[in-house]
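Late entry, evening session. Most of the bench is empty. Finally got around to the prediction I had been postponing all week. Sequence below, unchanged from the version circulated by S.P.
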Amino acid sequence: MKKGLSKTTRSNIGTFLIVIIAYIVCEILLATGTMSSGLEGLLVPCCYYIILSVALNLVVGYLGELSLGHAGFMCVGAFSSAFFTRAVQNIITNQTVRFILAILIGAAVAALFGFLIGIPVLRLKGDYLAIVTLAFGEIIKNLVNVMYIGRDSSGWHISLKDQISLHLAADGEMILSGPQGIGRIPKESSFTAGFILVLITLFIVMRLTNSRDGRAIMSIRDNRIAAESIGINITKYKLMAFTVSAALAGVGGVLYAHNLATLTATSKNFGYNMSIMFLVYVVLGGIGSLRGSVIAPVVLNLLLDFFLRQIQLIGDNPVIGFISDNRMLIYAIVLIAVMLVTWNPTMREKRAALFSKSRRGEAE
């Protein structure tokens, strides 16, 4: 008698089905015109937040290392892909081909940075690793802000001083303008493209974590000394997880960059708070839970960027006014409450007892 699907396989299939069903429902709402413009504007952001959350979960949940540099890898993927798109905009006119190439370039450059940064950084662990990866994100952001790149009939010009020092000819154009970033980016990101990239991201991470390499990565998380004692190359597998995670973060950056007309490297976009937000998604959804990394970004973005913003449009009411004025405070309280319900040992035992009781009732 053949055995059924394993628990992990069933969970992975369930996660794919959740994403597919959510996409179908959203497309139906868009086609019928019943989705508001505010909610429609959150579709693409939810996709790249899911990608970044899943990518970070590979490092935090499966490798067991705390990284706060994923906003930096997102920045690398965003700017490298946006730069490529602007540079070849008049050469590659097919939008789909250009966007696919931009995704590949963003992922490759972010993976390269992840590999190079990972060689010295992954020798650290715990708080030290978190601090160094955080510093990397800040360095990348500030490096972009001092770069000026333009081109004219004589070729490319690069400066770390200002735009005037490039000495562009009359036919020249600026591609990267320091703090002003990259402008006139074709808006090639779409909800369908984001959906496809989310599925690809989930497939890559699931295939990796369920493979022999994935089991080696998780063994390092569980007991580094024991893993090393049986011949597992610690450096190799840590670099593998970190590089794949950085590449996926770069893909999220590509989707982010091509959803904007102008891309700038500010603290709001690629700073410390962005990295912390990704970590909140991972912890709230469950460390090591890919399904949680899909659900948490959607729920939190709907709560913060849609519900709490839209509620102030209802009208003048003391309660509504209080909610509108204290939006971030309420958001923090909800986060704390959800974390207590999700991770508190007593609450977890009660929830498990409730589920087992309901299952016994269904069996009877």
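Two things to note before I forget:
Residues 43-270 form one domain.
The mean pLDDT is 86.
Will write this up properly tomorrow.
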